[in-house]
Amino acid sequence: MRRRLRKVRVGGREYVWRADIGVLRGDGDVHRCLGVRIWGAGKNSRVLVADLLSKSMSVGWATAATDTSHPTASDIRTLITHALAVGWDPDGRGGVFPLTETSGPELPGFLITDRVRHPDAPDPTARVIQANGYGPAAGT
Fold it and tell me: Which residues of 101-123 are buried (b: 16+ CB within 10 A; e: fewer)?
């Protein structure tokens, strides 16, 4: 199956991106996770990488089974704008520029997660619950 590459313009420049759909197991549930990859100067340029954890708390036997969240062009523009502000050089050759939980921007429907690459990163289930206004940080 061929991967679908999409295009978005930011600041007069065209970027190519894709989002690979996957799942991420948390301590309490399985969540939809999208691996976003963005290129600013062709396939050999430095790729911007962000793993997006859906904030959805949809119903069903597993959250990931009923979650249809997907990043919009606006979400991708936010990632690009933020990455450029913190030092991403899209013209650089090779390598990756990862956005992490601590260095990534806030998106309306997603959290950036490090759990995909670092198993000891914060629990996705707890983060989704907290992002939806429940749990210790929300005062419940």
Answer: beebbebebbbbbbbbeeeeeee
